[in-house]
């Protein structure tokens, strides 16, 4: 989800390889990092999201992505509990595959391959299998505008390591993930929007 590398085909960002690949942060950190879930209605929403993430099997879903510097790209996304694969076709062929506590990023333009741990990366919040939204993961905020359920997640022991916000279409009976926002420890935000889910 927020992969902090420059999506442009012409030149890398100035952050160095390890920072370019540091995975994000899916909403604004200031807006989402302060709330606590305590009401039974909030717990019901947490259980619905947890059940969705445990059961969903997204396969080659088209997505668009906006990096923190405004560069855009896209490709197809595959996700199920404990596994994420982003295959980029724009701005040029790239590949991010995450499973459990590790991820591998390949850039066909430069020929580089980078391996990274997810223990301190916001992306790791979505890699549990089975995924749990209690214990090591804390739900920091829930928003429910009409037809939408928005849930923000952080690491319980160190919420400053980043924030993931999942935005679902919600018709009351069914959730459909359509946006992920990732905010890293430097408060840079990456957006991934699914065209169908």
Walkthrough of the structure:
- By secondary structure, the chain is mostly beta strands.
- It has one domain (17-194): Lipoprotein localisation LolA/LolB/LppX (outer membrane lipoprotein receptor (LolB), chain A), CATH 2.50.20.
- It has three helices and eleven strands.
- The protein has helices at residues 17-21, 29-32, 40-55; strands spanning 58-66, 72-80, 83-90, 94-99, 102-107, 112-117, 137-143, 148-155, 162-170, 175-184, 189-194.
- An eleven-stranded antiparallel beta sheet has the order 6-5-4-3-2-1-11-10-9-8-7.
- Strand 7 and strand 8 (148-155) form a beta hairpin.
- The longest helix is centred in the first third of the chain and has 16 residues, at 40-55.
- The model is unreliable at 1-40 (pLDDT under 50).
Keywords, please?
197 residues; 43% strand; globular; single chain; 3 helices; outer membrane lipoprotein receptor (LolB), chain A
Give start-end ranges of low-pLDDT stretches.
1-40
Specify the CATH architecture: Clam
If strands are numbered along the chain, what order do they take across the biggest sheet? 6-5-4-3-2-1-11-10-9-8-7
- The total of helices stands at 3
Terminus-to-terminus distance: 16 Å
Order of helices and strands: HHHEEEEEEEEEEE
Task: Classify the secondary structure makeup into a structural class.
Answer: mainly beta
User: Radius of gyration from the CA trace?
Assistant: 16 Å
Q: Enter the CATH topology name.
A: outer membrane lipoprotein receptor (LolB), chain A
> What number of domains?
1
User: How many individual β-strands?
Assistant: 11
Our estimate of the beta-strand percent is 35-45%
Within CATH, the superfamily carries the name Lipoprotein localisation LolA/LolB/LppX
- Average of pLDDT: 83
User: Helix proportion of residues, in percent?
Assistant: 10-25%
Write down the CATH class.
Mainly Beta
Main sheet characteristics: 11 strands, antiparallel
Shape: globular
Protein name: Outer-membrane lipoprotein carrier protein
InterPro entries: LolA/LolB/LppX (IPR029046)
Organism: Acetobacter senegalensis
Keywords: Lipoprotein, Signal
């Amino acid at each position: 989800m927020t992969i902090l590398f420059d999506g442009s085909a012409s030149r890398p960002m100035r952050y160095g390889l390890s920072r370019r690949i540091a995975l994000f942060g899916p909403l604004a950190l200031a807006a989402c990092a302060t709330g606590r879930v305590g009401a039974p209605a909030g717990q019901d929403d947490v259980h619905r999201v947890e059940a969705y993430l445990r059961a969903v099997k997204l396969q080659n879903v088209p997505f668009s992505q906006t990096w923190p510097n405004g560069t855009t790209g896209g490709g197809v996304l595959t996700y199920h509990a404990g596994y994420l694969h982003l295959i980029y076709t724009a701005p040029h062929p790239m590949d991010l595959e995450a499973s459990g506590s590790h991820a591998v990023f390949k850039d066909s333009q430069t020929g580089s391959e980078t391996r990274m741990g997810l223990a301190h990366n916001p992306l790791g919040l979505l890699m549990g299998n089975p995924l749990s939204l209690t214990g090591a993961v804390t739900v920091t905020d829930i928003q429910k505008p009409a037809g939408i359920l928005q849930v923000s997640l952080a690491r319980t022991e160190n919420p400053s390591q980043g924030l993931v916000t999942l935005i679902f279409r919600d018709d009351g009976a069914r959730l459909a993930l359509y946006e992920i926002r990732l905010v890293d420890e430097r408060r840079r935000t990456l957006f991934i929007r699914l065209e169908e889910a």
